[in-house]
UniProtKB/TrEMBL annotation:
This is GNAT family N-acetyltransferase. Its EC number is 2.3.1.-. Pfam families: Rv0428c_C (PF24553). Gene3D superfamilies: 3.40.630.30. It comes from Actinomadura gamaensis.
Length: 239
């Protein structure tokens, strides 16, 4: 069975990773929840003690204690009893890549450029949409360049972007973003198709992505491109 939690952890690397028993405490200056949350990668003999250790770990860094939970109801219940709030329920969507390329060759992201490193314009486009963390551009760049990836950009001045991460048989889609003034022009679909094509030609047989439950527009786009919901995860944040 595929470990989506492992794929997510590897594709979105934190700047700091500290292993405590079967858990990993991750930190990246507060930029994104995934890179600043506990990944309960394995069982814990004393979860209460590890929770307390995590709370100290994040308090020492001036951050709230956050847990990323995928299919761990016991820990989820324990955190809820301790007053942790459930936030950002997110869907995992997957598709096979054997049919990623239309038979006639059209629609494979014409005009999309894919590079091995993100340009400043690429980062600016992504950060203009997802930059909820003030003055943290360097930390964000460290996360998105922490593993080999494909960086797709399209449109004048790089109006739409996406990031593809090769992970063996799997290809992860991340950082899908279109500048507000360039939306409703099909740029996100172009970027997505170009990345799927890159993943397939690179040898991957499946693709995955994650999208928040409330993002109806993105969910509709991904469903129209063959993605189906395969599971989900959420965060627990100490309030």
């Amino acid at each position: 069975m595929i470990r989506f939690d492992l794929l997510l952890h590897e594709a979105w690397p934190a700047v700091e990773n500290v292993r405590r028993e079967g858990w990993v405490f991750r930190s990246a200056g507060g930029v994104t929840k995934r890179a600043n949350s506990v990944w309960p990668a394995g069982p814990a003999d004393d979860p209460e003690a590890l929770i307390e250790a995590a709370e100290k770990f994040y308090a020492d860094r001036g951050l709230p204690a956050v847990f990323s939970l995928l299919d761990d109801p016991a820990l989820d219940e324990l955190l809820a009893r301790r007053g942790y709030e459930l936030v950002d329920p997110t869907l995992l969507m997957v598709r096979e890549l054997d049919a990623a390329e239309p038979a006639d060759g059209d629609g494979i992201g014409d005009g999309v450029e894919i590079a091995e490193e993100p340009s400043d314009a690429w980062v600016d486009a992504w950060w203009s949409v997802d930059g909820r963390y003030a003055d943290q551009g360097p930390a964000a760049r460290a996360i998105i360049t922490g593993v080999p990836a494909d960086y797709a950009g399209v449109g004048p001045g790089v109006a739409g972007v996406g990031r593809g991460v090769p992970q063996g048989d799997w290809y992860g889609i991340y950082c899908m973003a279109v500048r507000p003034e360039a939306r409703r022009q099909g740029l996100a679909r172009e970027v997505l198709r170009a990345l799927l094509h890159r993943g397939r030609t690179g040898g991957a047989s499946h693709a995955y992505l994650c999208v928040t439950e409330g993002n109806a527009a993105a969910r509709a786009l991904y469903a129209s491109e063959g993605f189906e919901v395969a599971g989900g995860y959420h965060y627990r944040v100490r309030t």
